[in-house]
Protein backbone atom coordinates (compact mmCIF):
# COMPACT_ATOMS: atom_id res chain seq x y z
CA UNK A 1 0.00 0.00 0.00
CA UNK A 2 1.50 3.33 -1.05
CA UNK A 3 0.18 6.32 0.90
CA UNK A 4 2.16 9.54 0.88
CA UNK A 5 2.56 12.05 3.66
CA UNK A 6 1.34 14.91 1.46
CA UNK A 7 -2.34 13.92 1.71
CA UNK A 8 -3.59 15.80 4.81
CA UNK A 9 -7.28 15.03 4.25
CA UNK A 10 -6.54 11.30 4.20
CA UNK A 11 -4.51 11.61 7.41
CA UNK A 12 -7.28 13.63 9.11
CA UNK A 13 -9.89 11.07 8.09
CA UNK A 14 -7.86 8.14 9.40
CA UNK A 15 -7.25 9.76 12.76
CA UNK A 16 -10.87 10.91 13.05
CA UNK A 17 -12.06 7.34 12.63
CA UNK A 18 -9.71 5.84 15.24
CA UNK A 19 -9.77 8.74 17.75
CA UNK A 20 -11.78 6.91 20.40
CA UNK A 21 -9.44 3.90 20.39
CA UNK A 22 -6.18 5.66 19.65
CA UNK A 23 -4.74 5.67 23.17
CA UNK A 24 -5.66 2.07 23.91
CA UNK A 25 -4.11 0.81 20.68
CA UNK A 26 -0.93 2.85 21.25
CA UNK A 27 -0.45 1.27 24.67
CA UNK A 28 -1.14 -2.18 23.20
CA UNK A 29 1.17 -1.93 20.19
CA UNK A 30 4.05 -0.38 22.13
CA UNK A 31 3.76 -2.85 24.99
CA UNK A 32 3.39 0.13 27.32
CA UNK A 33 6.72 1.61 26.21
CA UNK A 34 4.96 4.81 25.13
CA UNK A 35 4.75 5.75 28.83
CA UNK A 36 8.53 5.42 29.10
CA UNK A 37 9.15 7.46 25.93
CA UNK A 38 6.99 10.29 27.22
CA UNK A 39 8.67 10.15 30.63
CA UNK A 40 12.08 10.66 29.02
CA UNK A 41 10.71 13.57 26.98
CA UNK A 42 9.09 15.17 30.02
CA UNK A 43 12.31 14.91 32.04
CA UNK A 44 14.05 17.01 29.38
CA UNK A 45 11.21 19.53 29.26
CA UNK A 46 11.15 19.85 33.06
CA UNK A 47 14.85 20.74 33.05
CA UNK A 48 14.10 23.72 30.77
CA UNK A 49 11.58 25.14 33.31
CA UNK A 50 9.18 26.57 30.71
CA UNK A 51 6.34 28.91 31.61
CA UNK A 52 4.52 28.30 28.31
CA UNK A 53 4.40 25.10 26.24
CA UNK A 54 2.71 24.38 22.92
CA UNK A 55 2.13 20.72 22.05
CA UNK A 56 1.62 20.56 18.28
CA UNK A 57 -0.35 17.62 16.84
CA UNK A 58 -1.36 16.88 20.43
CA UNK A 59 -3.85 14.18 19.39
CA UNK A 60 -5.40 12.65 22.49
CA UNK A 61 -3.15 14.86 24.61
CA UNK A 62 -0.93 12.22 26.22
CA UNK A 63 2.28 14.25 26.11
CA UNK A 64 0.57 17.53 27.00
CA UNK A 65 -1.04 15.92 30.05
CA UNK A 66 2.31 14.49 31.16
CA UNK A 67 3.89 17.94 30.82
CA UNK A 68 1.10 19.55 32.87
CA UNK A 69 1.60 16.98 35.61
CA UNK A 70 5.36 17.56 35.70
CA UNK A 71 5.11 21.33 35.33
CA UNK A 72 1.73 22.36 36.87
CA UNK A 73 2.64 26.05 36.99
CA UNK A 74 3.13 26.19 33.21
CA UNK A 75 0.52 27.08 30.62
CA UNK A 76 0.23 24.07 28.29
CA UNK A 77 -1.67 24.47 25.01
CA UNK A 78 -2.56 21.55 22.75
CA UNK A 79 -3.13 22.04 19.02
CA UNK A 80 -4.26 19.50 16.43
CA UNK A 81 -5.95 19.62 13.03
CA UNK A 82 -8.21 16.66 13.89
CA UNK A 83 -11.17 17.83 16.01
CA UNK A 84 -12.26 14.31 17.12
CA UNK A 85 -8.82 13.74 18.59
CA UNK A 86 -9.14 16.99 20.54
CA UNK A 87 -12.49 15.77 21.88
CA UNK A 88 -10.57 12.86 23.44
CA UNK A 89 -7.92 15.23 24.81
CA UNK A 90 -10.64 17.40 26.35
CA UNK A 91 -12.20 14.39 28.07
CA UNK A 92 -8.73 13.53 29.37
CA UNK A 93 -8.62 16.90 31.14
CA UNK A 94 -6.70 19.24 28.86
CA UNK A 95 -8.32 22.66 29.30
CA UNK A 96 -6.66 24.67 26.51
CA UNK A 97 -7.05 23.13 23.07
CA UNK A 98 -7.05 24.64 19.60
CA UNK A 99 -8.03 23.12 16.26
CA UNK A 100 -5.07 24.12 14.12
CA UNK A 101 -2.86 22.88 11.30
CA UNK A 102 0.73 22.49 12.47
CA UNK A 103 1.91 24.18 9.28
CA UNK A 104 -0.18 27.32 9.97
CA UNK A 105 -0.38 27.86 13.70
CA UNK A 106 -2.78 30.57 14.99
CA UNK A 107 -0.31 32.00 17.49
CA UNK A 108 1.82 35.12 17.57
CA UNK A 109 5.53 35.11 16.85
CA UNK A 110 7.72 34.20 19.84
CA UNK A 111 4.74 33.13 21.98
CA UNK A 112 6.11 30.00 23.71
CA UNK A 113 9.12 28.84 25.70
CA UNK A 114 8.87 25.23 24.49
CA UNK A 115 7.20 23.60 21.49
CA UNK A 116 6.72 19.84 21.36
CA UNK A 117 5.36 17.36 18.84
CA UNK A 118 4.95 13.67 19.68
CA UNK A 119 4.34 11.38 16.70
CA UNK A 120 2.85 14.28 14.76
CA UNK A 121 5.48 16.00 12.62
CA UNK A 122 5.79 12.79 10.59
CA UNK A 123 2.17 13.17 9.44
CA UNK A 124 2.49 16.73 8.17
CA UNK A 125 2.46 17.41 4.44
CA UNK A 126 5.72 19.38 4.77
CA UNK A 127 8.13 18.66 7.60
CA UNK A 128 10.02 21.87 6.74
CA UNK A 129 6.87 24.03 7.04
CA UNK A 130 5.92 22.34 10.29
CA UNK A 131 9.35 22.91 11.82
CA UNK A 132 9.50 26.50 10.55
CA UNK A 133 6.14 27.25 12.16
CA UNK A 134 7.36 25.78 15.43
CA UNK A 135 10.42 28.03 15.21
CA UNK A 136 8.23 31.07 14.49
CA UNK A 137 6.09 30.69 17.62
CA UNK A 138 9.10 29.95 19.86
CA UNK A 139 10.91 32.68 21.74
CA UNK A 140 14.59 33.13 20.79
CA UNK A 141 16.50 30.57 22.81
CA UNK A 142 13.33 28.53 23.30
CA UNK A 143 13.40 24.76 23.07
CA UNK A 144 12.00 22.29 20.55
CA UNK A 145 11.31 18.64 21.34
CA UNK A 146 10.21 16.11 18.73
CA UNK A 147 9.31 12.56 19.76
CA UNK A 148 8.70 10.17 16.89
CA UNK A 149 9.31 6.76 15.41
CA UNK A 150 12.60 5.99 13.69
CA UNK A 151 14.33 3.00 12.17
CA UNK A 152 16.50 0.83 14.47
CA UNK A 153 20.12 1.81 14.78
CA UNK A 154 21.29 -1.84 14.61
CA UNK A 155 21.30 -3.02 10.96
CA UNK A 156 20.26 -6.57 11.92
CA UNK A 157 17.16 -5.19 13.65
CA UNK A 158 15.89 -3.30 10.62
CA UNK A 159 14.48 -6.21 8.57
CA UNK A 160 12.77 -7.64 11.67
CA UNK A 161 11.31 -4.24 12.54
CA UNK A 162 10.13 -3.66 8.99
CA UNK A 163 8.46 -7.08 8.94
CA UNK A 164 6.64 -6.19 12.16
CA UNK A 165 5.61 -2.77 10.81
CA UNK A 166 4.18 -4.03 7.54
CA UNK A 167 2.98 -7.57 8.30
CA UNK A 168 2.06 -7.84 11.98
CA UNK A 169 1.22 -4.40 13.38
CA UNK A 170 -1.52 -3.53 10.82
CA UNK A 171 -3.37 -6.80 11.48
CA UNK A 172 -3.35 -6.38 15.27
CA UNK A 173 -4.34 -2.73 15.06
CA UNK A 174 -6.95 -3.47 12.41
CA UNK A 175 -8.68 -5.92 14.74
CA UNK A 176 -8.68 -3.31 17.52
CA UNK A 177 -9.79 -0.31 15.48
CA UNK A 178 -11.46 -1.63 12.34
CA UNK A 179 -9.07 0.54 10.31
CA UNK A 180 -6.17 -1.64 9.20
CA UNK A 181 -5.31 0.97 6.56
CA UNK A 182 -4.53 3.53 9.28
CA UNK A 183 -1.73 1.32 10.53
CA UNK A 184 -0.55 0.37 7.03
CA UNK A 185 -0.10 4.12 6.67
CA UNK A 186 1.89 4.16 9.92
CA UNK A 187 4.50 1.76 8.54
CA UNK A 188 4.85 3.69 5.30
CA UNK A 189 5.18 7.01 7.13
CA UNK A 190 7.89 5.65 9.46
CA UNK A 191 9.90 4.41 6.48
CA UNK A 192 9.72 7.85 4.86
CA UNK A 193 10.49 9.90 7.95
CA UNK A 194 14.11 11.08 8.40
CA UNK A 195 16.00 10.02 11.51
CA UNK A 196 19.38 10.46 13.18
CA UNK A 197 21.75 12.94 11.55
CA UNK A 198 19.37 13.45 8.63
CA UNK A 199 16.70 14.66 11.02
CA UNK A 200 19.00 16.89 13.06
CA UNK A 201 20.25 18.52 9.84
CA UNK A 202 16.66 19.14 8.76
CA UNK A 203 15.81 20.72 12.12
CA UNK A 204 18.89 22.97 12.01
CA UNK A 205 17.89 24.18 8.54
CA UNK A 206 14.47 25.37 9.78
CA UNK A 207 15.38 28.05 12.30
CA UNK A 208 17.05 25.98 15.01
CA UNK A 209 20.57 25.23 16.23
CA UNK A 210 22.28 22.51 18.23
CA UNK A 211 19.81 19.80 17.21
CA UNK A 212 20.50 16.51 18.95
CA UNK A 213 19.08 13.00 18.58
CA UNK A 214 18.39 10.61 21.45
CA UNK A 215 17.53 7.11 20.16
CA UNK A 216 15.35 5.02 22.50
CA UNK A 217 14.36 1.34 22.51
CA UNK A 218 17.04 0.20 20.05
CA UNK A 219 16.40 3.24 17.91
CA UNK A 220 12.76 2.42 17.10
CA UNK A 221 11.85 5.78 18.65
CA UNK A 222 13.91 8.96 18.86
CA UNK A 223 13.73 12.23 20.73
CA UNK A 224 15.12 15.29 18.97
CA UNK A 225 15.86 18.54 20.78
CA UNK A 226 17.02 21.89 19.47
CA UNK A 227 17.20 25.55 20.40
CA UNK A 228 15.50 28.37 18.50
CA UNK A 229 18.07 30.68 16.88
Uncertain residue segments: 1-5
Q: How many helical stretches? A: 9
Domain count: the total is 1
Structural class: alpha/beta
Q: Given the C-alpha coordinates, what overall shape results?
A: globular
From N to C, what is the helix and strand string?
HHHEHEHEEHEHHHEE
Query: How many β-strands, per DSSP?
Result: 7
Strand order of the largest sheet: 3-2-1-4-5-7-6
Kindly estimate the percentage of residues that lie in beta strands according to DSSP.
Answer: 15-25%
Assigned CATH architecture:
3-Layer(aba) Sandwich
Mean pLDDT: 90
Distance between the termini: 39 Å
The CATH topology assignment is Rossmann fold
Q: Can you identify the CATH superfamily?
A: Vaccinia Virus protein VP39
In which range does the helix fraction lie? 40-55%
Rg: 16 Å
The biggest sheet amounts to: 7 strands, mixed
Under CATH at level 1, the class stands as Alpha Beta
Structure description:
With 229 residues, the protein is α/β, with parallel strands linked by helices. Helices cover 47% and strands 22% of the residues. It has helices spanning 8-18, 22-30, 33-48, 62-70, 83-91, 127-137, 157-177, 180-192, 196-204; strands at residues 52-56, 75-80, 97-99, 112-118, 138-149, 208-216, 221-228. α3 (33-48) crosses α4 and α7 packs antiparallel against α8 (180-192). The longest helix has 21 residues, at 157-177. The protein is globular and about 45 Å long.
Amino acid sequence: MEIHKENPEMVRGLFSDIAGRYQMVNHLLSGGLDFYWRAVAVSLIRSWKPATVLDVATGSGDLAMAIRKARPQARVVGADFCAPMLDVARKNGLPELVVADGMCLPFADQDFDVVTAAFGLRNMASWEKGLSEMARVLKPGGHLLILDFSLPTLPLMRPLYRFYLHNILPHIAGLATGRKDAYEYLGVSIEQFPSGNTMTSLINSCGFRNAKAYPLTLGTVSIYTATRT
